[in-house]
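Hi V.,

You were right to ask for the full record rather than a summary. Here it is.
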Amino acid sequence: MAPEPGPLIELRDVQVRYGAQPALDVPALGVGPGEVLAVIGPNGAGKSTLLRVLALLETPARGQVRFRGVPVGSAAARLALRRRMATAFQEPLLCDTTVAANARLGLEFRGVGRAEADRRARPWLDRFGIGHLADRRARSLSGGEAQRASLARAFAAAPEVLCLDEPLAALDPPTREALLDDLEPLLRAEGMTTVFVTHDRTEAMRLGDRVAVLLGGRLAQVGPPEEVFGAPADETVARLVGVENLLGGQIHAVQDGLVEVAVAGHRIAVIGWARPGDRALVGLRPEDLVLDPPDHAGPTSARNRLAGTVLQVTALGPLCRIVVDCGVRLTAVVTRSAVAALGLDRGVPVSVSFKATAAHLVRPHRERRADDAGERAP
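Predicted structure:
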């Protein structure tokens, strides 16, 4: 069997500094051929800096960018490789000319004649749903139309690496959702190696083959979406990816991969491995909690059931956020119809259930720091 190809583009021991503190410190990160890597993190985490380094738009203070395993060295080599890449930013950078002229601009920069560039670019305007706007001036476009034109220009260049820096962040929710619906199948169909920076968890889950979590300029976790969002590496990552319920407790018993955690007078069953006596956090996503009447006795595969009282009901569009006091505060997300059917309101008793597979052990901050210190020790 032939070996798996290595990364198309990668960072090795890269550091970027703005002043005294490093803004980016990445020992290793690679993006494979045809892979979509979604990069998430809070504001100021270094996401855009990471993208600029990968796109060869910024030279790191230390370390290497490698393309197909070869370090990128001279300015001439960087320029040649930038012509094999394309970047779209949060704010569309369009020239004051027609939409069609903007779409073919990247190809013309690469030496393609105008007629041929137009032939290649026009289909991308159609695929992004703005072919009928080809002859309109770019400055007359709405925000969503302008971003579609920017993306069409990037795709038309047929880059080996596509870099997208929060291209949907400035759009209103309906426009963002519509463009995401179009972008997702295009990335899959083209098999284009892509680095997609976003602060939106939904975008990362939908688009990313892998997700990289960046915190304080460092990679906190890299893995498939189901791993990063379902089993975050530590407490900080868990909060970032939407694990609202983090319950502090102590490992009571471990048997055959089932961990029993003592939490505020409850024994919670979790799939995983740990040592009895260890401190731990149990992570639960709000959408994995099921609410029932307190006397509910129907069939269920949930190993965990806690009695509680509703503290708060907050509408979230078609859904509702329910906070329940079970000795610990639990947050669930349910439909409005479930709220009506259960008569959920402040003070109403409920039963909260969840499967052992829905809960996971999360390392607390203190434990993570101790582990990191041990990893750095000589």
